Amino acid sequence: MDEEREKLPQHTPEEVDASRRQFLRNLGVTAAMASLLSSGAILEERRAKRAQAETLQTPPSGATELRGTVAVTLQVNGREHTLQLEPRVTLLDALRDHLGLTGTKRVCDRGSCGACTVLLDGKPVYSCSVLAVDAQGKKIETVESLAQGEQLHPVQQAFVEHDALMCGFCTPGFIMSLKALLDKTPQPTAQQVKEACAGNICRCGTYNRIFEAALAAVQSMSRGG
Amino acid sequence: MPQQKTKRIKTTITVNGETREVEIEVPDIEAAWGDPRNMRWLGKRIPRVEGADKVTGRAKYTYDIQLPGMLYGKILRSPYPHARIRSIDASRAQRLPGVKAVITDLTREVKYVGEEVAAVAAVSEQVARDALKLIRVEYEPLPFVVTPETAREPSAPRVHGGQNVSGGNPRERGDVDSAFRRSDVVVHEATYSVPARSHCCLEPHGLVCQWQGDKLVAWASTQGIFSVRDELAGALGIPASNVRVICEHMGGGFGSKFGARSEGVICARLAKHAGAPVKLMLEREEEQLATGYGPGVTAKVKIAATRDGQLIAWESESYGSGGVGGGSGIPLPYIYPVPNVRTRHYDIATNTGASAALRAPGHPQASFIMESAMDDLAHKLGMDPLEFRLKNDPNPVRQAEYRLGAERIGWHRRNRVAGQAPGVVKRGLGVASAIWGGGGGAGSRPTVRIDPDGSVEVRLGTQDLGTGTRTYVAAIVAEELGLDIRQVKALIGDTDYGYSGASGGSTTTASVAPAVKMAAMAAKERLVAVVSQHLQANPADIVLADGKLTARGGSEKSLTWQQACALLGKEGIEVQGEWNANLQGSGVAGCQFAEVEVDTETGKVRVVKIVAIQDCGLVLNRLAVESQIYGGVTQGLAMALYEQRLFDEQTGRMLNANLEEYKLPGSLDMPDVEAIVYDNPTGKVSGMGEPPVIPTAAAIGNAVFNAIGKRIHSLPITPAKVLQALGKV
Question: Which one of A22, A169, A181 would you mutate to disrupt binding with B, by most B Cβ within 10 Å of its Cβ?
Fold first, then answer.
C-alpha cells in the first residue's frame, strides 16, 4: 500500500498550482473544451488540451500581452479613476485595495459565491472574475453608490427593517443582485427574486428574510417610496 | 465592607458538546427584567443598530482594514498529508523585490494538507503569492490516513506515533442487558452516520497586525477578542496589557474563530520582522483546509421500548474523527430519558486537520442518530412518531411546542404508514427536537456613561457575530433609561472597552445582558438621586420614559432627559455593571417539523416546509431571535442534503476545499420556513444561537422516511442514496 503511494508522481506545488492569471486568460479555451467534452470526443479533448498548453506559452494572435504595471481607467460610481495596476489585478482587488471601496467583499475569489457582485453596464457580474483592465470603458456600480447620503436605497432600507442580514458579509452582493433585478424588472415575482439571488451564497442562512425584504422593497418602490 | 450576600444556583455548562449541570455560588442582588408587556424595546422587533452600515458597505470588517504602508501576508501550506520537512530554501523569495519578511521556522513535520510551512509579507498580495512559489521545500512524504474507517484498522499508518484510536470507556447506568432481554420489549438495531462538515465562514480567518513599539494592535475576525489577546501575548512573550484586539464586525465564525490561531501569530511575527503593518486573511482554499471542521460520527445503535411505547434501553458504540486534534464526542442517548444505558465512544486520529466547535458541537450529529432510531423504533412499534415523543419527553415546554408544531405543519396529513404516499413524487412529514443550556456566567464588565450633554454610551469588550449582541446591548440601556435606542451608543468589539468572554456555546446573551442591565440600573440610580433632589421627590417615585424623568404621585413635575443630565457635574455618570444570576436562565427547548417531497425517479429531495419552534426564556429582540431560527434551519438543511468534506485516500487531499464542490444551499433550495419564538415566561434571558440548528437534519431525514418508507442511514441524503434505498440502482 505504502509502496504504491511512493510510486505516485510527486508534483511540486508549482506544477500543481494552475495560476489564477492563466485560468482567467484561458476561460475562453475552457469553455470550448466543455463543449467538446459534451460531444464525447476524447481525442478532440486531448487536442484541445495541447492547444491550451500552447496558448499558455504564446499569446493568441491579435491579443496584447501586458507586463509590469499599466494605467487602467475605471468609471466607478460616476467618477473616473486612473490607477497603475499589474494587468493581473482583478476588478474586485482594484476596487478594494486601490480605491478603498471595501463594501464589495472577497469570499471565494473564483466566481462561486457572489459576495463580490457589482454592476457592469447595469449587469450583475462577479468582480473577482473580471480583470480590472477588461472593465475599462464600462460603467461600474458598487454597493457604495446606492444610498444618497443617509437616505438608503429601498432595497437597503428593506434589508435593515426585515433583518435580511446577520454577519452581513454576503449582504452587499445580494443587494447588488437585487438592484440589477429591480432596475430591469420593477415588479418581479417571488420566483424571479429567488432566481436573481441564485448566484449568491449566505452562510448565516438569511435567504427567507432576503426574499421578504426584496418583495417589501418592490412594494415601497411602487408606492414611490 | 459588608459581606456580599451570595446564593448557590444550578446552571448548565456546555464544554465540547457535553452539557452538564453544575452548582455555582453567585452574588445575590435583587434584580428582575420586569414585565415584558410594559417594555418599549425589549421583546420587540428591533432592527439591528449597525444595519445601515452593513447594507451600505460602510461597515469595516477585518478584511477591509487598510493602513498606510500595510503589507500583505501569505502562508505556504503543505501539499502532503504527512511529511517531514528536510529543508526549506527561501533565499529566492527573500530576494524578490517587494518581499519584506519571510518566516520558515514554523514546523519540521506536517500532518495534513494545508498545514503551515512558511510565510511571507510583501507589498502586494500578488508579490506575496509569487514569493511563496519561490520557496523550495524538500519534503519526505510519510504514510498517512484520512478516513476514520481506515484509521481504525490496526495496520493503519499512525497519525501521531501512538494509537490512532482513543477513548472507548463504557458509560453505563441501569441494567442494560436484562432490559433488552425482557419479553415485553421491541428492539431496533441500526448504524447511522454524519460526515465531517466545514464552517465555510464567508469572511475568512485572518488579522491585521500593527506594532507600535512593543505594543501590538490586532484587528481580528474572531469570536473572542480577549482570547485572541491572551493567545497573542502568550505566543509572542509580551504582557497581555500590551495587546489590543479590535473586531467591530465579523463575517461568521460558527465555532471556528476562537483564539489567535497559527495565522494570528504568523501575522504578528511578519509585522514585527517587516517593521510594518501586515494584513493576513486566508484564501478560500486555506479557509476550507485549515481552520477546523465539525467532526463526523458513526454510531451503531440498539434501542428498545416496551410495547406500549416507553423507552427502556439504549446501547451505542460510536466513533468519530477530530483529525489531528480535537475530540468528536456526542451526547447519546439524546434528549429522551432512557433508564438503562451503555455507550462507548472512540476518537480516531486522521491526517485531516484539527476539528473545531461547529454550531452546537456534537448535538446535530447526536440528533440525527437518536431521532432516526426513535422513528425507526416507532415504525416497528406501529406508533405515531409524534405520539412516541410525547410519551417519552418529559419537558413541559417541548410538550407544548410539539402540539403547536403539529398544528402548524398539518401533522394529520402524514402518511400513517411510511412510504404509503401515492405517485412518483412522494410527500412525507417528520419531527425532531432540540435541547441546549444557554446559561451565562460572570466576568463581563460593561461601563455605562452619561454625559452632562445627555449623550449615553455603553462600552463592553464583547463581539457581535451577526447574532445581534450590539443591538440588545443598546436596547437594554435605552429601556432602563427611557430613551430611544438611537440615543444610546453601543461600543463593543475592542479589548479597551472592558472584559467580556468569548462568544461560544450560546453563552453570550446570558452573560452580557445581565451585566449590561446591572450597569444601566446603577447609572439610572445615580441619575435619579440627582433628579429627585432637584424635584424634591422620593427617588422611588421617579419614572424614566419617553426621554423624560417624571415624579409620580404628587406634583407630576418632570424634566426632559437633557435637563436632567445638565444637573450632573462635568464628570457625568460612569458606572460598571457585574453579571447577576437572577437575570439569566438556562435550559432551552425547541422542536422542528419538516415536510419534504421525494422524487422516486431522480432520488432528489425537496424540502417544502419547516416549522421551527424555539424558546429562549425572556426575548430581548424578537427580530434577531427569529433570524437565528432561520439561520439554524438553513444550516441544518445544508447538513441534511448537501454538506460533507470529501478526502481522496490515495493522495490525502480534500477534494472539495472550495464553495462550489462543497455544497451549500442557495436561494432556490430554500423551503418555506415558519420561525416561531416560543414565549416561555421564565422572566430570564438565555442564549439560543445554537439549538435551532440541532433538529433540522433529523426532521428532514424522518420526513424522507415517512415519504418513501426507506431509511437513509447516512447524511447527506443525496439522490444516489435515495435511489439505492429504493432499489433503483
Answer: A169
